[in-house]
UniProtKB/TrEMBL annotation:
The lineage of its organism: Bacteria, Pseudomonadati, Pseudomonadota, Alphaproteobacteria, Rhodospirillales. It comes from Roseospira marina. One of its GO terms (biological process) is positive regulation of sporulation resulting in formation of a cellular spore. This is Chromosome partitioning protein ParB. GO terms for cellular component: chromosome. Pfam families: ParB_N.
Length: 220
């Protein structure tokens, strides 16, 4: 089997009858946007049959090209192969063998300088997916290794006649990926220097942050 690279009209490429890879209308729209944005950068894999080229990988890209009016697409032909090998190639083409390092992915996405809405328009991620990915650099939990089990409970026993006054609130925010490590080290350093070690981890970190931001002005 010697693969050959060529170009073909997408309407001449026939789908195979065993493809199990389904795509939602939402992701079809994202694929269309991706192709408009970046072009047909990934060839469609086909085999040669008596009826012409049969798709082994890239049926959705073929469909998108037709929707977009593209008349010529890159193709990799594996020649004439039997059904078993053709199905094996289809399965391998649809499979993803690796998984993303979430922190690395967050750095990569942030480094593009593209808005989350823009990313969502052409990548197969939902808004929730992107929020989850980017939350890996949230300073309050991940960057500080905060254990939520250490946080004081907001609930009080029902039979208590006197309530303790609330003194702190939880504030969640994000910082630029390039600054997150420096901010975390600064907070940890201030915790040690100023003795902010007696409360729970999140309160200690918050007290250190307030000291860093407001300490100088309070002393003036």
């Amino acid at each position: 089997m010697t693969p050959t690279q060529l170009y073909a009209n997408p309407e001449d490429l026939k789908a195979n009858p065993w493809n199990t890879n389904q795509m939602s209308p939402e992701n079809e729209a994202k694929l269309d946007t991706a192709i408009r944005r970046m072009g047909m950068f990934k060839p469609i894999v086909v085999r040669e049959t008596d009826d012409g080229f049969q798709i082994l990988g890239g049926e959705h890209r073929r469909d998108a090209a037709i929707r977009l009016g593209i008349k010529e697409v890159p193709v990799i032909s594996v020649g004439r192969i039997d059904d078993v090998r053709a199905k094996e190639i289809s399965l391998a083409d649809n499979a993803r063998y690796g998984s993303d390092d979430i922190m690395g992915l967050a750095h990569l996405l942030d480094g593009l300088g593209v808005s989350q809405d823009d990313l969502e328009s052409f990548l197969p991620y939902t808004d929730t997916d992107l929020d989850s990915i980017m939350s890996s650099v949230n300073i309050d939990v991940d960057a500080l290794d905060y254990d939520e089990s250490e946080a004081p409970s907001d609930t009080s026993p029902t039979d208590t006649s006197e309530k303790t006054a609330k003194t702190h609130v939880v504030m969640r925010f994000k910082v630029a990926i390039g600054d997150s490590e420096r901010v975390s080290k600064l907070i940890q350093s201030i915790q040690t220097e100023q003795g902010f070690t007696e409360a729970d981890a999140l309160t200690n970190a918050g007290d250190a942050l307030v000291h860093a931001l407001l300490g100088a002005s309070d002393d003036a």
